[in-house]
Write a structure and sequence with these properties.
This protein is of the alpha+beta class. It has one domain: NADH Oxidase (3-Layer(aba) Sandwich). The protein has helices spanning 3-6, 10-18, 49-72; strands at 28-33, 36-42, 77-80, 93-101. Strands 1-2-4-3 form a four-stranded antiparallel β-sheet, covered by helices on one side. Strand 1 and strand 2 (36-42) form a beta hairpin. The longest helix is centred in the middle third of the chain and has 24 residues, at 49-72.
Length: 102
């Protein structure tokens, strides 16, 4: 995502990129649709339960960095689960949560 497309959320998204992840793999993805940022994690379909759990912990840390930076920047929004019916994503990509700007 370009800084221009990220808009006011360029710095919070940069903090996601700088966040720790196991083996520095950073297997999360962010997709912007309208005023919403959708967060996903990726792993092989046959990944072990432990591997999947670690990736979710890593994404949780990244989401915390995003949220804390958004608060620091005075950006209004909230996390919520949103239907992904009309969003086409790869088979190894799993929806976690969305941030809706206000």
């Amino acid at each position: 995502m370009t800084e221009t497309l990220a808009g006011d959320y360029a710095i919070p998204l940069e903090m996601v990129c700088l966040s720790h992840s196991g083996m520095n793999s950073q297997l999360w993805r962010v997709l912007k649709t309208g005023n919403t940022y959708h967060f996903y994690e990726t792993h092989k379909q046959n990944a072990s339960k432990e591997e999947t759990l670690i990736k979710q912990v890593d994404l949780g840390i990244a989401l915390s960095h995003f949220h804390q930076t958004a608060l620091e920047q005075g950006l209004n929004g909230k996390f919520e689960k949103i239907s992904q019916k009309n969003i086409d994503i790869p088979s190894d990509t799993y929806y976690i949560i969305s941030w809706v700007t206000e």
